[in-house]
Amino acid sequence: MLLATRIEGIGERLRGLGSVVDRYERGDPEFPEAAIAWLRGCEQLLLGLRVHEGAEIAALRGAIARAGDRPAADDGEHTSRRTAVRRARAVAAADALERANAVLQQTAADAEAGSVTSKPSSPRR
Prior knowledge:
Helices cover 71% and strands 0% of the residues. By secondary structure, it is mainly alpha-helical.
C-alpha cells in the first residue's frame, strides 16, 4: 500500500510539470516562482515519504534563488541588471526542473523495484 502511494504521489507531481514548463516556453516572468512552488511540493512529498531525495530538491530551490544573487556576466549585450537576473533565474529554474524530473523518475523507478525504503525520522533511544 505504501509503495503504491509513493508511486502515485510522484506520478501526480510529474503530471504537473508540463504546466510549469509551459510558462517557461511562454516567457512568463513568474516562471521561476512557479518552478520554486512546484519544487517545494516535490520536496514536501519526498520528505513525507521519508526519502532523502527531498533534500536534493531543496538544494535545487536554493540554486534558483542563488542565481538572482550572482552578478550578471557580461554577455556582450546591453541588458539591464534586472533583465540579466531574471534571465539567470529562469535558466536556473529550467535546469532545476530538469534535474528534479530525473530525481522523481528515479525515485519512482526505485519504488516500483522495491528498493526505496523509508528512513526513520529520528534515532530511537
